[in-house]
Amino acid sequence: MALEAITPLLAIVIITALVFDFTNGFHDTANAMATTISTGALKPKVAVAMSAVLNLVGAFLSVEVAKTISGGIVDENGLKTEVIFAALVGAILWNLLTWLLGMPSSSSHALFGGLIGAAVMSVGWGSVNGGTVLTKVVLPAVAAPLVAGLAAMLSTRLTYRISKNADAKATSTGYRAGQIASAGLVSLAHGTNDAQKTMGIITLALITGGAIAPHSDPPLWVILSAGTAMALGTYIGGWRIIRTMGKGLTELAPQQGFAAQTSAATAILASSHLGFSLSTTQVCSGGVMGAGLGRKGGVVRWSVASRMAVAWVLTLPAAALVGAGAEFLTEQGTWGIGLTAAILVAGAAVIWRLSRRNSVTHANVNADEIGTPAAPVEVEPVIIESPVAEATARPAAAVQSPSA
Amino acid sequence: MTIDWAALGTVFGVSLALTVGLVGLFTLGIVALSKRGPAGEREGSAALTTSGAYVCFALCAAAVAYGIYVIVA
Q1: Of A60, A155, A310, A365, which sees the most CB atoms within 10 A?
Q2: What keywords appear on the UniProt entry (chain B) (predicted)?
Q3: Which residue, among B3, B33, B71, would best test binding to A if mutated, counting the most A CBs under 10 Å from its CB?
Q4: Residue pLDDT, tens place only, A151-198
């Protein structure tokens, strides 16, 4: 490809895409590793390192997803480079905000939302395929937690029944090993799916910018940089989200962690290969809740779960709104693009500063009490107002009905 | 707009069956392993439980291998 074809704008888009990829990595570490960390199957640092390596490996395994990036949600023809930039800005800011709040939310939905918002602002409502949004985003978001939750709940019941008379100490090693294997599969699948989304975005930008020919495969440097950015993000670890998923939603014993992670791995692999794509984040959260309900006397903290559901519902429209705002600015010309980039950097800096007030790290991710709660009480930036304080310790309400 | 209910149903069924099956199998394996060893058990039955456990683990390992195959393919 012609390097001279990489304009400053294109370079900004590529960098922004890699930043999104990085946030995607640390947002989604929780999916593979939250339960592995909370049950003590792996030490926190070891868990994120393993996940990062498998993400990187996964990025090289296939480029199928990258070729069908936006999945028909917006009309890719005539998509301008600025629109992609604006979409990424929306997705990154939403990812960072949900991370600050310790909420697992789908990075893919954030990206779709950003794309939709920016495309509508740029070309109007005609560019968005509403039916596709419903079938590819809304329905899977409802189905994913149900599928994984039910599977995790039933298998938790089964495993407790079978191991009723066994020595818990002797079996827990086995459960941990099984959990690590399932978590590894989830990481690998995540690398192939999500790193490719960024590859797809960069490739799309290169094509629209005229740097490479239409229908090209992602160039090697794109695969390499996207895989690395995601692995780095994964290794940094979104500890706030890991804490919510591993300890905030419910308390997990090794049996439950194993059941949750196995249901997540099977549901992800089944969905991506039987033609009905489900979001990894929602599958994993559903698995954790199901495993929580499957144990006799197990509890799910519905207050945390419902805040999570709110975050899921808001993800697409919120990212779309930011994407649309960003697109409005970038349309104004070079100064608008510069301003958007400045807003992105400033927004990220503010969120990072807020996160320092009660930082969650590998050292305290499993602690019963963190000097401050897992997700901020005093920080109430926009949208989701209620505290996630319960994430720290006490079981809320006993739950009898398997209404997951 | 068409919703592919068949695909959704298949995903639901396959996920459910595979998860419950694998978790059950793996649990049988580790329970069998945890029961071997204590005094009073005859040599033969201990060997039987152990090999039973390894069959369970081998089947689970095969499932993981298939999972990796599915990711790569």
Answers
A1: A155
A2: Membrane, Transmembrane, Transmembrane helix
A3: B71
A4: 999 999 999 999 888 887 888 888 989 999 999 999 988 888 788 888
Which residue has tokens 């692995």?
A231
A322-352 per-position pLDDT tens digit: 999 999 999 888 899 999 999 999 999 999 9
Please say whether the beta carbons of A235 and A52 come within 8 A: yes
Amino acid, res. A113:
G
Residues of B with CB under 8 A from a CB of A: 1-4, 7-8, 10-12, 14-16, 18-20, 22-24, 26-31, 33-35, 60, 64, 67-68, 70-72
Distance, in Å, from the CA atom of A238 to the CA atom of A374, rounded to the nearest integer, reads: 12
Percent residues over pLDDT 70 in chain A: 86
B26 close to A261: Cβ distance less than 8 angstroms: no
Residues 6+ apart with CB under 8 A from A200: A65, A66, A67, A68, A69, A70, A218
**A269 Cβ under 8 Å from any chain B Cβ:** yes
Sign of the torsion formed by the C-alpha atoms of B54, B60, B65 and B68: negative
Q: Domain map of chain A by residue range?
A: 3-392
